[in-house]
Amino acid sequence: MKLYNPDTIVAISTALSDAAISLIRISGEKSFEIVNRIFKKKKSSSQKFDVDKHKSHTIHFGYIYDNDEIIDEVLLYIYKKPNSYTGENLIEISCHGGVYVTRRIFSLIIKNGARHAEPGEFTKRAFLNGKMDLAQAEAVADLIKSRTDLAYKSSISQLEGSLSDFIKSSREELIKIISLIEIELDFSEEDIEFIKKSELKDKINSLREKYIKLINSFIEGRIIRDGLNLVIAGKPNSGKSSLFNSLLSSNRAIVSDLPGTTRDYLQENLVIGGILFNLIDTAGLRFTKDEIESEGVKRSYEKIKEADLILFLIDSTSNPKEIEENYKYFKEEFDTDNAILCFTKTDLEMQISYDYINEKKGIPVSIYNIHLLNNLKQIMVERFSHVQISQSKSEIVLTNIRHKDCLERVVDSLDKAIESIDAGMSGEFISVDLRNAINHLGEITGEFTNEEVLNYIFSKFCIGK
């Protein structure tokens, strides 16, 4: 994708399916010209439609024509530059849903001079035309992908400019500091000090602490944006797939009394207490000569390593010796802050007592007992109660790994500036480090970036946005 391509672009902005309506979006210099060729306000009228004669942000009912054939009756939305999403002349056509009619209109627009938009190209044009900065553009993609209320609120906050405003204000503070240093350099022969080194260091440290706080919020932000990886693990027949199905309230995994039924991991999303859990059912952990099952066990261990939380299951109906061996295995391999020990099938004939479960700091689980299932869900959420997920618009939470990397480079530059101050170096060296910090801040908002980075960011967008 080139940095900016002046072609007129078109995309189907809604899912291509048997829906009630579809939305087709056109942007670019030829968008009005194309519409004038294919749109009429009245049936069988010889009068041509002229977009230029109508105001921006108006809606018009009419018909899409392919020569003399009516394709569909539609609503036409007009947005004139620069007051459009992309900053260009933009048209949106709301037609009847369905694969055939939508594709027919789309192909007609292509035939009349537009080209198929690339992923994220509408938002990329909005960024390049100054309608939003890069952080806000990335928030658009996050908003579309948001699956919880917290993810939605975080994306809206960033889209409204919470992060961008913070970057702008802190950048201005750095510029003021640099100006004081560089004015002092101009009067170096007169030995005039515009700012004391101790005060300079305090100002830099104050900004550094703000950036560190924002970087530390990324753990919370990742949970908000991507959810928590929760792995259900245990030996074969410990009830993993049954619990997986019960938590999801669906028969997603195959359940069987035969060991080794699950030969690969299954993954589904589950929202509990406003937190998104990426729920993963794994193959039973055991040694096996079966090549396929062995690969499944290998993948189970890989998922366990990536997990934010592990539910390790022990079948309470198996013989006491086996239960004790499984508990020993849990203590050796899984007994960490991110693991919860669960004793399953407690509705059946248990071979252990509840005193035993309490002694081992486990929790009883039964897929047929709603109270026990709710207790498990509550414990899952409480494990992350230390993560203070803020819903306040005034609190900025970092959700993007690119932003985190940029801020870490900002902090590194500020650290070097502080080292230069401590070493008694002249203002030139301090100024260079602070300017590097400003450049890294500019990478977040897109003020300082390159074509490769932009293309990578927008390639992850959906087509039509």
CATH topology of the largest domain: Rossmann fold
Strand order in the largest sheet: 3-4-5-6-2-1-7
CATH level-1 class of the largest domain: Alpha Beta
Quantity of strands, as a count? 13
Query: Helical content, roughly?
Result: 40-55%
Radius of gyration: 30 Å
Number of helices: 16
Q: Span from first to last CA? A: 15 Å
**CATH-derived architecture of the largest domain:** 3-Layer(aba) Sandwich
Major β-sheet annotation:
7 strands, mixed
Explain this structure to me?
The protein has helices at residues 31-38, 99-111, 121-128, 134-145, 149-159, 162-186, 197-216, 218-226, 240-248, 291-306, 320-333, 354-359, 370-382, 401-422, 427-445, 451-459; strands at 9-12, 21-27, 39-40, 58-66, 69-79, 90-96, 115-116, 228-234, 266-272, 275-281, 309-315, 339-344, 363-364. The two termini are 15 Å apart. The strands form two sheets. A seven-stranded mixed sheet has the order 3-4-5-6-2-1-7. With 465 residues, it is α/β, with parallel strands linked by helices. The longest helix is centred in the middle third of the chain and has 25 residues, at 162-186. Helix content is 46%, strand content 17%. Helix 7 packs antiparallel against helix 14 (401-422) and helix 14 packs antiparallel against helix 15 (427-445). The model is unreliable at 253-263 and 286-290 (pLDDT under 50). It is flat. The chain has three domains: 9-132, Gyrase A, domain 2 (2-Layer Sandwich), CATH 3.30.1360; 139-217 and 396-446, Four Helix Bundle (Hemerythrin (Met), subunit A); 224-382, P-loop containing nucleotide triphosphate hydrolases (Rossmann fold).
